[in-house]
Specification:
Structural class: mainly alpha
Shape: elongated
Helix content: over 70%
Number of helices: 6
Largest sheet: none
Radius of gyration: 21 Å
Number of strands: 0
Oligomer: single chain
Length: 209
């Protein structure tokens, strides 16, 4: 009994997590849970606004909006695959391959941001949609659209910076496999959020001619 007590005490005194998980991973999971609540509230607000307004606009034409958003989705799905490969390579001690896979993940993420900004510029300059107004008469559309997609794109940009820091550290012989895995958790979360935004915001707002 005393040995069990001393073992439990040793776990709390440092060196090991009392929950049998890495502290960095545990911290990332706490962040993901809290951030998931934020996105859940925004998605709920968007859905409520859509249901409460019978004249909610369906402005997205198949070309270019749906095509652009579909390509953006493929970019994020591909980046999730390359992130999995980066974690796999790091678990096998191959730092060079890990760096390459992380760079591929960043390339897909950067392509997503570039396409998203292009779509934003098209809506602002050609459709005259802003966060304050839009030509379809439902002011909340612009506010909820730019608020939700803008928050997600901000997360993607932060993720790119995060991955850049991890990548250079890995190639310099620093950081461990758990650090790459933790960064992967963040990136997969960002990708998962988009899997809700894409159908709710884009596919359900496609303009049927």
């Amino acid at each position: 009994m005393s040995s069990q007590t001393s073992a439990a005490t040793a776990m709390w005194e440092g060196g090991r997590s009392p929950f049998a998980t890495n502290s960095k991973k545990f911290g990332m999971w706490l962040f993901i849970i809290s951030d998931a609540l934020t996105f859940s509230v925004m998605l709920f607000a968007y859905t409520y606004s859509r249901v409460a307004n019978p004249n909610w606009p369906t402005p997205f034409h198949f070309n270019p909006s749906i095509i652009f958003s579909s390509i953006m989705t493929m970019c994020l799905l591909s980046s999730s695959l390359t992130m999995v490969m980066a974690v796999h390579a790091m678990n096998h001690g191959n730092r060079k391959a890990t760096g390459g896979w992380i760079l591929a993940t960043m390339a897909f993420g950067a392509a997503f941001v570039g396409l998203h900004l292009t779509e934003w510029m098209n809506l602002i300059n050609h459709e005259h949609v802003t966060a304050q107004s839009n030509p379809w008469g439902v002011p909340l559309f612009g506010a909820t659209f730019f608020g939700l997609t803008g928050l997600h794109m901000t997360h993607v940009v932060i993720g790119l910076i995060y991955l850049a820091i991890v990548c250079q550290a890995v190639l310099r012989g620093k950081f461990k496999a758990e650090d790459v895995e933790v960064s992967g958790l963040y990136w997969h979360f960002v990708d998962l959020v988009w899997m809700f935004i894409f159908p709710l915001v884009y596919l359900m707002s496609t303009k049927i001619v």
